[in-house]
Amino acid sequence: MSSSSYTCIRTVFCFVNVLFWITGCFLVGVGVWLRISYEGYATLLPQYALLSADSLAIFVGLVTILVSFFACCGSWLQSRCLLISYFCLVVLMFMSEFLVGSLAFVYRDNIKHSFTEKLQDGIAHHYNLTQSPNNLVIIWDDIQLTLKCCGVESYMDWYLIDAWPDERWVPDSCCLPADYATGCGKKTTGFYQSGCRESIYKWFKERLLVVGLVGLTVAFVQLFGLISSMLLFCTVKYRRRSRTYKSYQ
Protein backbone atom coordinates (compact mmCIF):
# COMPACT_ATOMS: atom_id res chain seq x y z
CA MET A 1 0.00 0.00 0.00
CA SER A 2 1.36 3.41 -0.97
CA SER A 3 2.00 6.09 1.60
CA SER A 4 -0.75 8.33 0.19
CA SER A 5 -3.34 5.53 0.32
CA TYR A 6 -2.38 4.69 3.86
CA THR A 7 -2.62 8.33 4.90
CA CYS A 8 -6.03 8.65 3.24
CA ILE A 9 -7.46 5.59 5.02
CA ARG A 10 -5.97 6.69 8.30
CA THR A 11 -7.38 10.22 7.98
CA VAL A 12 -10.87 9.11 6.96
CA PHE A 13 -10.93 6.47 9.67
CA CYS A 14 -9.95 9.03 12.29
CA PHE A 15 -12.47 11.58 10.98
CA VAL A 16 -15.37 9.10 11.03
CA ASN A 17 -14.59 8.12 14.59
CA VAL A 18 -14.37 11.75 15.66
CA LEU A 19 -17.94 12.03 14.38
CA PHE A 20 -18.76 8.92 16.39
CA TRP A 21 -17.25 10.53 19.47
CA ILE A 22 -19.39 13.63 18.97
CA THR A 23 -22.44 11.40 18.48
CA GLY A 24 -21.63 9.58 21.72
CA CYS A 25 -21.43 12.86 23.61
CA PHE A 26 -24.74 13.90 22.06
CA LEU A 27 -26.39 10.63 23.15
CA VAL A 28 -25.13 11.05 26.71
CA GLY A 29 -26.51 14.59 26.73
CA VAL A 30 -29.87 13.42 25.40
CA GLY A 31 -29.96 10.64 28.00
CA VAL A 32 -29.26 13.05 30.84
CA TRP A 33 -31.92 15.42 29.51
CA LEU A 34 -34.46 12.59 29.30
CA ARG A 35 -33.54 11.45 32.80
CA ILE A 36 -34.15 14.95 34.19
CA SER A 37 -37.17 15.92 32.08
CA TYR A 38 -39.06 12.62 32.01
CA GLU A 39 -37.93 11.01 35.23
CA GLY A 40 -41.45 9.99 36.21
CA TYR A 41 -42.03 7.80 33.17
CA ALA A 42 -39.72 5.15 34.63
CA THR A 43 -42.40 4.50 37.25
CA LEU A 44 -44.65 3.01 34.56
CA LEU A 45 -42.35 -0.01 34.34
CA PRO A 46 -40.08 0.07 37.39
CA GLN A 47 -38.93 -3.49 36.68
CA TYR A 48 -37.40 -2.29 33.40
CA ALA A 49 -35.99 1.03 34.56
CA LEU A 50 -32.54 0.10 33.23
CA LEU A 51 -34.05 -0.42 29.76
CA SER A 52 -35.65 3.01 29.63
CA ALA A 53 -34.78 5.40 26.82
CA ASP A 54 -32.61 7.61 29.02
CA SER A 55 -30.60 4.68 30.43
CA LEU A 56 -30.07 3.17 26.99
CA ALA A 57 -29.03 6.52 25.51
CA ILE A 58 -26.47 7.10 28.26
CA PHE A 59 -25.11 3.55 27.99
CA VAL A 60 -24.85 3.58 24.19
CA GLY A 61 -23.31 7.05 24.29
CA LEU A 62 -20.62 6.00 26.76
CA VAL A 63 -19.80 2.86 24.76
CA THR A 64 -19.60 4.92 21.57
CA ILE A 65 -17.22 7.38 23.23
CA LEU A 66 -15.02 4.53 24.47
CA VAL A 67 -14.91 2.80 21.09
CA SER A 68 -14.18 6.07 19.29
CA PHE A 69 -11.37 6.77 21.74
CA PHE A 70 -9.67 3.48 20.88
CA ALA A 71 -10.16 4.16 17.17
CA CYS A 72 -8.80 7.70 17.13
CA CYS A 73 -5.86 6.92 19.40
CA GLY A 74 -5.06 3.75 17.47
CA SER A 75 -5.14 5.61 14.18
CA TRP A 76 -3.23 8.66 15.34
CA LEU A 77 -0.59 6.77 17.31
CA GLN A 78 -0.53 3.88 14.83
CA SER A 79 -0.92 1.45 17.71
CA ARG A 80 -1.75 -2.12 16.81
CA CYS A 81 -2.96 -2.79 20.34
CA LEU A 82 -5.56 -0.01 20.22
CA LEU A 83 -6.63 -0.93 16.69
CA ILE A 84 -7.25 -4.56 17.60
CA SER A 85 -9.09 -3.43 20.74
CA TYR A 86 -11.29 -1.24 18.55
CA PHE A 87 -11.90 -4.15 16.18
CA CYS A 88 -12.94 -6.48 19.02
CA LEU A 89 -15.25 -3.88 20.59
CA VAL A 90 -17.00 -3.17 17.28
CA VAL A 91 -17.43 -6.90 16.63
CA LEU A 92 -19.01 -7.27 20.08
CA MET A 93 -21.30 -4.30 19.42
CA PHE A 94 -22.29 -5.67 16.01
CA MET A 95 -23.05 -9.12 17.44
CA SER A 96 -24.99 -7.61 20.35
CA GLU A 97 -27.11 -5.49 18.01
CA PHE A 98 -27.84 -8.51 15.83
CA LEU A 99 -28.69 -10.68 18.84
CA VAL A 100 -30.96 -8.10 20.47
CA GLY A 101 -32.72 -7.37 17.19
CA SER A 102 -33.25 -11.08 16.48
CA LEU A 103 -34.56 -11.82 19.96
CA ALA A 104 -36.88 -8.81 19.86
CA PHE A 105 -38.30 -10.00 16.53
CA VAL A 106 -38.72 -13.63 17.59
CA TYR A 107 -40.26 -12.82 20.96
CA ARG A 108 -42.16 -9.69 19.93
CA ASP A 109 -45.53 -11.18 20.94
CA ASN A 110 -44.21 -12.20 24.36
CA ILE A 111 -42.70 -8.75 24.86
CA LYS A 112 -46.01 -7.12 24.00
CA HIS A 113 -47.86 -9.40 26.42
CA SER A 114 -45.32 -8.81 29.20
CA PHE A 115 -45.44 -5.06 28.59
CA THR A 116 -49.22 -5.10 28.99
CA GLU A 117 -49.07 -7.16 32.16
CA LYS A 118 -46.51 -4.88 33.79
CA LEU A 119 -48.53 -1.77 32.99
CA GLN A 120 -51.66 -3.36 34.44
CA ASP A 121 -49.73 -4.46 37.53
CA GLY A 122 -48.51 -0.89 38.03
CA ILE A 123 -52.07 0.40 37.89
CA ALA A 124 -53.42 -2.28 40.21
CA HIS A 125 -50.75 -2.19 42.91
CA HIS A 126 -48.65 0.99 42.64
CA TYR A 127 -51.16 3.70 41.73
CA ASN A 128 -51.64 5.55 45.02
CA LEU A 129 -53.43 8.87 45.39
CA THR A 130 -52.43 9.25 49.04
CA GLN A 131 -48.72 9.63 48.29
CA SER A 132 -47.50 13.09 47.37
CA PRO A 133 -45.91 13.47 44.95
CA ASN A 134 -46.80 10.28 43.08
CA ASN A 135 -45.12 10.19 39.69
CA LEU A 136 -47.23 7.27 38.53
CA VAL A 137 -50.42 9.27 39.05
CA ILE A 138 -48.99 12.26 37.18
CA ILE A 139 -47.72 10.17 34.27
CA TRP A 140 -50.94 8.22 33.78
CA ASP A 141 -52.94 11.44 33.88
CA ASP A 142 -50.67 12.93 31.24
CA ILE A 143 -50.89 9.84 28.99
CA GLN A 144 -54.67 9.57 29.22
CA LEU A 145 -55.27 13.26 28.64
CA THR A 146 -52.87 13.37 25.69
CA LEU A 147 -53.86 10.11 23.97
CA LYS A 148 -57.55 10.37 24.91
CA CYS A 149 -57.74 6.87 26.33
CA CYS A 150 -58.29 5.11 29.64
CA GLY A 151 -56.33 2.27 31.22
CA VAL A 152 -54.10 -0.20 29.42
CA GLU A 153 -56.53 -2.39 27.49
CA SER A 154 -59.72 -0.69 28.62
CA TYR A 155 -61.16 1.53 31.32
CA MET A 156 -61.92 -1.59 33.39
CA ASP A 157 -58.22 -1.85 34.25
CA TRP A 158 -58.94 0.82 36.86
CA TYR A 159 -61.69 -1.13 38.58
CA LEU A 160 -61.03 -2.50 42.09
CA ILE A 161 -57.37 -1.44 42.19
CA ASP A 162 -55.52 -1.02 45.49
CA ALA A 163 -56.16 2.74 45.47
CA TRP A 164 -59.94 2.08 45.62
CA PRO A 165 -60.32 -1.67 46.29
CA ASP A 166 -64.11 -1.70 46.60
CA GLU A 167 -64.99 0.76 43.86
CA ARG A 168 -65.38 0.71 40.10
CA TRP A 169 -63.85 4.12 39.48
CA VAL A 170 -61.48 5.58 36.93
CA PRO A 171 -59.14 8.59 37.27
CA ASP A 172 -60.59 11.96 36.37
CA SER A 173 -58.12 12.12 33.47
CA CYS A 174 -60.22 9.42 31.75
CA CYS A 175 -63.25 11.72 31.54
CA LEU A 176 -64.39 13.16 28.23
CA PRO A 177 -63.71 16.90 27.87
CA ALA A 178 -67.43 17.70 27.96
CA ASP A 179 -67.89 15.80 31.23
CA TYR A 180 -64.60 16.68 32.90
CA ALA A 181 -64.91 17.82 36.51
CA THR A 182 -63.46 16.90 39.87
CA GLY A 183 -64.74 13.45 40.78
CA CYS A 184 -66.09 12.70 37.30
CA GLY A 185 -64.23 9.38 37.31
CA LYS A 186 -66.58 8.10 39.99
CA LYS A 187 -69.49 8.17 37.58
CA THR A 188 -70.48 5.21 35.42
CA THR A 189 -70.38 7.09 32.10
CA GLY A 190 -68.67 10.04 30.48
CA PHE A 191 -65.13 8.67 30.09
CA TYR A 192 -63.01 7.13 27.36
CA GLN A 193 -63.76 3.47 26.72
CA SER A 194 -60.65 2.32 24.86
CA GLY A 195 -57.29 1.60 26.47
CA CYS A 196 -53.99 3.36 25.81
CA ARG A 197 -51.97 0.33 24.73
CA GLU A 198 -52.75 0.48 21.02
CA SER A 199 -52.16 4.23 20.90
CA ILE A 200 -48.75 3.78 22.49
CA TYR A 201 -47.88 0.96 20.07
CA LYS A 202 -49.02 3.06 17.13
CA TRP A 203 -46.74 5.87 18.28
CA PHE A 204 -43.79 3.48 18.35
CA LYS A 205 -44.62 1.88 14.98
CA GLU A 206 -44.68 5.26 13.28
CA ARG A 207 -41.06 5.70 14.33
CA LEU A 208 -39.81 2.20 13.51
CA LEU A 209 -38.82 3.23 9.98
CA VAL A 210 -36.53 5.94 11.32
CA VAL A 211 -35.07 3.51 13.86
CA GLY A 212 -34.48 0.94 11.11
CA LEU A 213 -32.75 3.44 8.82
CA VAL A 214 -30.54 4.63 11.66
CA GLY A 215 -29.70 1.03 12.53
CA LEU A 216 -28.73 0.22 8.93
CA THR A 217 -26.58 3.35 8.75
CA VAL A 218 -24.80 2.47 11.98
CA ALA A 219 -24.26 -1.11 10.78
CA PHE A 220 -22.75 0.15 7.52
CA VAL A 221 -20.39 2.51 9.33
CA GLN A 222 -19.43 -0.27 11.74
CA LEU A 223 -18.65 -2.54 8.79
CA PHE A 224 -16.50 0.19 7.27
CA GLY A 225 -14.78 0.62 10.62
CA LEU A 226 -14.00 -3.10 10.83
CA ILE A 227 -12.51 -3.20 7.33
CA SER A 228 -10.51 -0.01 7.69
CA SER A 229 -9.23 -0.97 11.15
CA MET A 230 -7.91 -4.26 9.77
CA LEU A 231 -6.30 -2.45 6.84
CA LEU A 232 -4.63 -0.05 9.24
CA PHE A 233 -3.58 -2.88 11.53
CA CYS A 234 -1.97 -4.86 8.70
CA THR A 235 -0.30 -1.77 7.27
CA VAL A 236 1.03 -0.70 10.66
CA LYS A 237 2.42 -4.19 11.16
CA TYR A 238 4.16 -4.09 7.78
CA ARG A 239 5.54 -0.59 8.24
CA ARG A 240 6.74 -1.45 11.73
CA ARG A 241 8.78 -4.30 10.33
CA SER A 242 10.26 -1.98 7.75
CA ARG A 243 11.18 0.43 10.61
CA THR A 244 9.90 3.44 8.68
CA TYR A 245 7.98 4.94 11.58
CA LYS A 246 7.63 4.88 15.33
CA SER A 247 4.90 2.59 16.68
CA TYR A 248 3.09 2.99 20.00
CA GLN A 249 1.88 -0.27 21.50
From TrEMBL:
Family stated for the protein in its record: Belongs to the tetraspanin (TM4SF) family.
One term under GO cellular component: plasma membrane
Protein name in UniProt: Tetraspanin
Keywords from the named record: Membrane, Transmembrane, Transmembrane helix
Pfam families registered for this protein in UniProt: Tetraspanin
Residue ranges of the TM segments: 12-36, 56-77, 84-107, 208-236
Predominant localisation class: membrane
Annotated InterPro entries: Tetraspanin/Peripherin, Tetraspanin_animals, Tetraspanin_EC2_sf
Membrane topology: Multi-pass membrane protein
Subcellular location, record wording: Membrane
